[in-house]
Amino acid sequence: MVDMDKIVSLCKRRGFIFQSSEIYGGTGSCWDYGPLGVELKNNVKRAWWRDSVQFRSDMVGLDSSILMHPRVWKASGHLDHFTDPMVDCRACKKRFRADKLEDDTWVHYCEATKGNKFAVPAGEPCNHCGTKRTLCPACGKGDLTEPRQFNLMFKTFMGPVEDDAAVTYLRPETAQGIFVNFENVLQSMRMKLPFGIAQIGKAFRNEITPGNFTFRTREFEQMEIEYFVPPGSDEEWHQRWLDERFAWYPKYGIRQENLRLREHEKDELAHYAKRTADIEYLFPMGWSELEGVANRTDFDLKQHAQFSGKSLEYFDEETKQKIVPYVIEPSAGADRGTLAFLVDAYREEEVKGEKRVVLNFNPELAPIKIAVLPLLKKNERIVETAKKLCTDLRQRWHAVYDDTASIGRLYRRQDEVGTPFCVTVDVQTVGDDKSPSDDKVTIRSRDTMQQIRVPVTSVETVMAKLMAGAWGEIAAEQGVTKN
Ligand SMILES: [Zn+2]
Ligand SMILES: [Zn+2]
Hints:
alpha+beta, Rossmann fold, 3 domains, 5-stranded mixed beta sheet, 14 helices
């Protein structure tokens, strides 16, 4: 498993992810997606949207606003329950999550060794005096306050007056935008149970301890589905969605052995949930949540019906009864997903005695699909042909032209950002005084480093097949072996 520092450094060096407001020292918990990062993340979101909405007849999409009526958060329970218990150090004033105090090494001035300072591993007692941590884990000196509940929602004001009546919140989840639009979607789209509404959008949580790069941030993007089912069929649908979502990640390249399911314990369940299971990924910092799939029961619709006074029921034509549907919620993180795809794609190999770093992205997710490279940048006919070919390919794929280094270096650069195919235009392609042009170009595969030669006029047709995974077949036809 690659360590996170390598991923962070590659991301910065190659334009995937930068620290937010870096020239001002950064914010510590916000990140910006650079030119390649935005392509990658957009591709992840596009794949999710296509699979969740466009390929299904029982799903529709939604894009609701970030700012909502403040009563939404009272009804949803976020105003009263979306809190973490916090303690403060009376000496150094640092703030900690009360339930995470034992998760890190703690500083200890040991009486048994004349007050020498030690860093004691997480959760363990001191080797010398045998005591466990009671004081501040960071400074080792201060008393900690009693835990206080700290709401994780970002508070703001709607309109020009900053008073209590204008208080609202940045949404802490996209789900509520779906619940409050349940009736609108039901009526306008004439939906029949079971059906789902999908949404991708930003959410905000004032996390006390953000960290692990883009894994836990205060501003993040969710990809959420609320799937409405008749009560009684909820358990079966929950399992179906778990299976479906678990199979989604390997479809785009995540290795099966890096995924697992983790069932929530009864005391860990959110107040609205009947059952929740997390799809976890083996990130560099260990197994962590990639997506949660929860059975939210009829809690949200009933709450919003009660608080808004509007009926949020479904009329069942068969039984002629009004019912409140149950909800299955597969809730994925676009940032976490993107990070997992990045980490899983990272490879270091040795090729002819040199280190090769490669991101073996599924072509669907790769930020750049094709790089068109001229073998000689001083040969006008080569450059002209390459640029024209790149322009043509751009009509269909994200293609780039690069002539800023030798061909070997250009290949390595494209490997490092995960470009699946390079197309090289050389002297043979355009011909010279000695030999006529063959009008063919070389296509090189990132994964096998094999090369095939195809007519310029059929590059697009061949490329379509290659993007769908036909390299082995086409290379075999040409009798190509690994070089
Ligand atoms: Zn302290
Ligand atoms: Zn001690």
